[in-house]
């Protein structure tokens, strides 16, 4: 008789079967000629051996969407927190708004994706948009560009999650807004 079981711990992202089967092989000796008599699995002549493993998808990946602001016209320097930018979900709902730093850079809170974002044996696309939230300074012409960000979250076939993104169909593409500043008209005084 034999015990048949699966050897586990080969791949960390697989939950191996704990099943064990008692295999009994009866050999018939007919005048020195050996032949297979019967085989039973767990005392069942019709028994089968079956191991079911589970692929475990665990872990996360993250992306941080960043952008830049450029000024043209009569002013090209920034003040921190002068301009505001919005990250929106695919329904147009504002998820987060952030402001620029003194160099014109901005970044949204890191987006995290995990196994809940990945369908079984597949991938999922999540769409966001990024746009500038126009201020009320009449001297600026605010950029009305809209950037479409598509995040593809998928199983990396090693038990983990991978997130990659495109911006307007360019992988890890840039997000950049340009505003134009119009100087006030000179004031002349005539007494």
Molecular structure report:
Helix content is 0%, strand content 50%. The chain has strands spanning 2-5, 14-15, 20-30, 33-41, 54-55, 60-63, 66-73, 84-88, 94-99, 105-107, 111-114, 123-133, 140-141, 146-155, 161-167, 170-171, 176-181. The strands form 5 sheets. The chain has a 6-stranded antiparallel sheet with strand order 9-8-12-14-15-16, with no helix packed on it. Strands 10-7-17-13 form a 4-stranded mixed sheet, with no helix packed on it. The chain is rod-shaped and about 135 Å long. The mean pLDDT is 90.
Features:
mainly beta; single chain; 191 residues; 0% helix; 17 strands; 6-stranded antiparallel sheet
Percent helix, as a range, is under 10%
User: How are the strands ordered across the major sheet?
Assistant: 9-8-12-14-15-16
Shape: rod-shaped
Specify the number of helices.
0
CA gyration radius, whole angstroms: 32 Å
Main beta sheet: 6 strands, antiparallel
Q: What series of H and E elements makes up the topology?
A: EEEEEEEEEEEEEEEEE
Amino-to-carboxy terminus distance: 117 Å
Q: Which regions are unreliable across 5 or more consecutive residues at pLDDT < 50?
A: none
Structural class: mainly beta
Average residue-wise pLDDT:
90
Number of strands: 17
The proportion of residues in beta strands is over 45%
């Amino acid at each position: 008789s034999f015990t048949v079981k699966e050897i586990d711990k080969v791949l960390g992202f697989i939950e191996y079967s704990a099943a064990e089967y008692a295999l009994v092989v009866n050999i018939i000796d007919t005048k020195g000629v050996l032949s297979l008599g019967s085989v039973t699995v767990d005392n069942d002549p019709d028994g089968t051996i079956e191991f079911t493993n589970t692929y475990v998808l665990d872990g996360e990946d993250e992306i941080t969407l960043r952008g830049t602001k450029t000024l043209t016209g009569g002013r090209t320097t920034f003040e921190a927190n002068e301009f505001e930018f919005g990250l929106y979900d695919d329904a147009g709902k504002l998820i987060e708004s952030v402001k620029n730093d003194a160099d014109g850079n901005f970044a949204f809170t890191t987006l995290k994706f995990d196994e809940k974002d990945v369908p079984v044996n597949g991938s999922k696309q999540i769409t966001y948009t990024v746009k500038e939230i126009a201020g009320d300074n009449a001297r600026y012409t605010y950029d009305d560009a809209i950037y479409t960000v598509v995040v593809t979250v998928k199983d990396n076939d090693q038990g983990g999650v991978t997130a990659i993104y495109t911006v307007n169909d360019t992988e890890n593409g840039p997000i950049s807004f340009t505003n134009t500043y119009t100087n006030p008209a000179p004031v002349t005084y005539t007494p």
